[in-house]
Amino acid sequence: MSGETSTTSGRAGLGHDQAGRNVAIARLVIGLSQGLALWALYRADQGYGGQSVWPATVPMLFAALVLIAAYLPIVLLAGVGRLRIRTLAIWGIVAAVALGLLAMHDVARASRINDAFGSFVILPFSAVALFIVHHLIVPADRERRWIAPFHVYFDTAWMAGVQLVLSIGFTGAFWLLLFLGAALFNVIGLKFLGDLIGEPWFSLPLTGLVFATAVHLTDVRDGLIRGVRTVALMLLSWLLLVLTVLVAGFLAALPFTGLDGLWETGSATALVLSAAGALIILINTAYQDGRPDNLPPVVLRIAVRVASILLTPLIVIAVWGLSLRIGQHGLTPDRIIAIACAVVGAAYAVGYGAAALIPFARRGSPWMKALEPTNIAVAVLTVAVILALFSPLADPARLSVADQVKRLESGKVAADKFDYGFLANGSGKAGEKALEALKRSNDPEIARRAAGARIDIQTAGISDDERLAASIAIEMLPEGTASPFGPSGPASEAMRNCTGRQGGCVARLMDLNNDGQDDVLMAHQFAIVLFERDAGGQWRDRGSYTAACGGGDARDALRYEHLTPRPSPWPVLDVSKLGTWALQPGNLCDAAPNTNRPR
Fold it and tell me: The dihedral of CA 510, 511, 517, 519: what is its sign?
């Protein structure tokens, strides 16, 4: 009997080992695939000969692929070995579709249509939504029920959080060691490693592999991760005492100090909501999974109850401050996001406040038990709010534009006080569409000011000739000289410094290399850029001049009547593949004439 048992155990052990190897292989394949996908997208964006190639030439598609490649593999890494294959496949498809739609909407609503990556703000919000949904699915799939016991949610989410932090730390440490090794080899004249890790085709797939390895290593050391989590929760829970005392003191002082100082900061809502968010996290570190064997000390139980009650006045203050700002200045995208955060905070405040007060109304009720359904319900609410914000349903830019235009048309804001620049540069296509409508307004003052609003090249993209023509200002010298450029100027990154908002640029024709053809010196605030016409008639950026002595505005230097080109007394150093190096004179500045004087 014992021999049979041993054989059975051995087979079970072999089966477990094989399953572990399969999970490891799957994770490594996912990590490598992520790195290769990101490298392929990078190459498409960089293109060949300076021109992007498909899919980077289709901004909406490219943004969707970038977001999917960045986040979907992490979802799969976290799901392999923890979710049934069918559940993981369905969840992976849903996540990919959701990420793609969010990214496509993000690009479609923006005016920066040439920025195929979309806006930065979508990255943290989509990551939060994915984390929440994933850790609602894993416990439900494990327990084979739609809503799992709270302790399973707690265990799964906090374990994953610790695992994610350790995996990111492991990947960072790996790269620090790799850079250290490259530096050591470089000292003895071997630069191959430094060159290799600087290549995206090597670094991106390697990063994916290393991160996947870290995920697997932390997964197989389950006991170690639980130990780290226990220590982290214990340390954080005691910080709840500190923050509870500080928040209580702040609220107690308000009747004596008033709220004027808080409103004057201009960031009162953000500060108060941040304090509420910190309290929510620390309350959960003390409560943990709510089981009797994890009951915290009495002092922490009191702190949890007090902190839960303090959430309500904090949210009230945040909403009050937000309503005052909206009443004075209307909606903006930032304020709409703050409203969304306040809604989530209010849901926590109601649930946690009830959890703290129920035991007083009902003797024998478990300590803070109502916190558990609150966490689950608010998790679902948070995901819904994020999806609404990054979809047409509650697009912050669209809602803000509608509110601001309504304030203008109703007379709440005078035509000369209205922020037309917000419509032109701060609210995407919805703002630009509204601005065009205002140009046809029956109010001549509104129409005139709307027509004068310029779209900044930095939010428009350098390839849009109409927007460039409306935003670039170039002063030709001497006065009356015709511009050799088209309406948008040459295709150069330097043109980003020539918008009317930045004071425009100054340009002068001058044959600098004595080839019989005029070159163009164009100065923005920080440098003088040299343009030369190539054989095909196109103006090319050949480099820039910066002040070797003195400083100031480069446009004043170009306005100097006696500006004279002279050859450098020192040759340029040719360093092969490292390019050419030009001497920047520094010790001759005392003897150099001042060429920065205005005319």
Answer: negative
Q: Could you please report the per-residue DSSP string of 150-187?
A: HHHHHHHHHHHHHHHHHHHHHHHHHHHHHHHHHHHHHH
- Which residues is 522 bridged to in the sheet? 507, 529
Q: d(Cα 399, Cα 394) in Å, to the nearest integer?
A: 7
Burial 513-537 (b: 16+ CB within 10 A, else e): eeeeeebbbbbbebbbbbbbeeeee
pLDDT tens for residues 347-363?
999 999 999 998 665 66
Do 112 and 176 lie in one domain? The reply is yes
Q: What is the rounded end-to-end Cα distance, in angstroms, of the chain?
A: 105
Q: Specify the DSSP class assigned to residue 590.
A: G
Number of CB atoms found within 10 A of residue 136's CB: 20
- Give yes or no: residues 53 and 97 share one domain: yes
CA dihedral of 396, 400, 403, 407, whole degrees rounded to 10: 170
Q: How deeply is 158 buried, as exposed, middle or buried, from its count of CB atoms within 10 A (0-12, 13-18, 19+)?
A: buried
pLDDT given for residue 554 in this prediction = 82
Burial 5-44 (b: 16+ CB within 10 A, else e): eeeeeeeeeeeeeeeeeebbebbbebbbbbbebbbebeeb
Q: Where are the alpha helices (DSSP H) in 47-149?
A: 59-79, 85-108, 122-143
List the domain range (segments joined by +) for residue 350: 227-394
Q: Are residues 298 and 190 in the same domain?
A: no
Distance between CA atoms of residues 394 and 404, nearest Å: 16
Contact 481, 509 (CB under 8 A): yes
Query: Are 203 and 297 members of one domain?
Result: no
Tell me the C-alpha distance between 226 and 596, whole Å: 65
pLDDT digits 0-9 by tens, 515-565: 888 889 988 888 888 888 887 778 888 888 877 665 577 888 888 877 888
Same domain, 384 and 423: no
The two tokens of residue 20 are 């572990």
* DSSP state at residue 541: E
Distance, CA of 147 to CA of 160 (rounded, Å): 19
SS3 443: coil
Q: Please indicate, yes or no, if residue 596 is contained in any of the structural domains.
A: no
Tell whether 63 is covered by a domain.
yes
SS3 assignment, position 592: coil
Single out the residue of 542, 513, 514 nearest to residue 528, CA to CA: 542
Q: Tell me, yes or no, whether 311 lies in a domain.
A: yes
Q: Residues in the chain, how many?
A: 599
Q: 506 has which bridge partners?
A: 475, 523
